Amino acid sequence: MFEALWGWPPPVLDPAGPYADKVTVLAWVLLALGVIVTAIVCVALWIAIRGPAPLKQRLGGESAVWIGGIAFPGIVLTALLIWGLTLTANLTDDITGNERRIRVTGEMWWFRVQYLDAAGRVTMEDANEIHIPVGEPIVLELRSGDVIHNFWVPHLSGKKDMLPGRTNLLRLQAGEAGQFGGVCAEYCGGPHALMGFVAIAHEPADFARWEQARMQRLATVNATGGAGRQLFMDSGCGACHRVAGTEANGLAGPDLTHVGTRASLGAGILPNHRGTLIGWIGDSQGIKPGNRMPSYDTLSAGQLDAIAQWLEQQR
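and the corresponding structure tokens:
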């Protein structure tokens, strides 16, 4: 499983981009300050219970209350607030409109991903996988199709809610190429704990090649597939899933046009290969109980293999 998920759930203190780096620095400082304050309180408590009489007397004096109870927390918290706001100021900079935009919609229990052009039109659609170029700030339009979700790639940015009827914006940037796990960080019912995704950062030249390959794929008509394609259509899969170039135009489930290239299945919970495709189609409810895809346990092993083989070809 780690082959596909790269340590999912992702570590929260291992930044790989400028936005996540600032959040991580702030988190470490807050943690260190919490440890120091706890240590001071423990020492004061020990003095109050078992310390020598002179120290007890000083601890209970009026000056100790003024210094330890008012001046110290007031100065420290004020300084921390000013420093923290300064450190993270660019996380909320105004959107210029020139940034590359990706719309991510939280669904129960997966992520719909749509790449937008400068006019806000959808150019490509995917699911549970986000491709971005290294070194370029990306603006994510975060939405929800049902309940409240939360988008979080700890390596690359802070987290933000995905709300029904509202679009939240989040900046995200990768400082190095790699594959980074993401999660829904807001309990959204059912198999919420199994709602993940993968963000893949490419070097700019590699990203351009990836983008060109995707656009070429969309321009072709996928007329092949044989038995697997026919079984996919006959089983009604096209009512929920879209596969560009075929009669499958469903919008309820993830777009499967490029499912063969994805690193994971089931919203980030399985590595993507023939065996897991077969298992997911045949027993999705056993793997991820409560998700909205039924288990196709009436199909034979040969039929499941044929469908999986056809889906593997969708690249």
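(Above: one complete record from the training split.) The first helix runs from residue 2 to 5.
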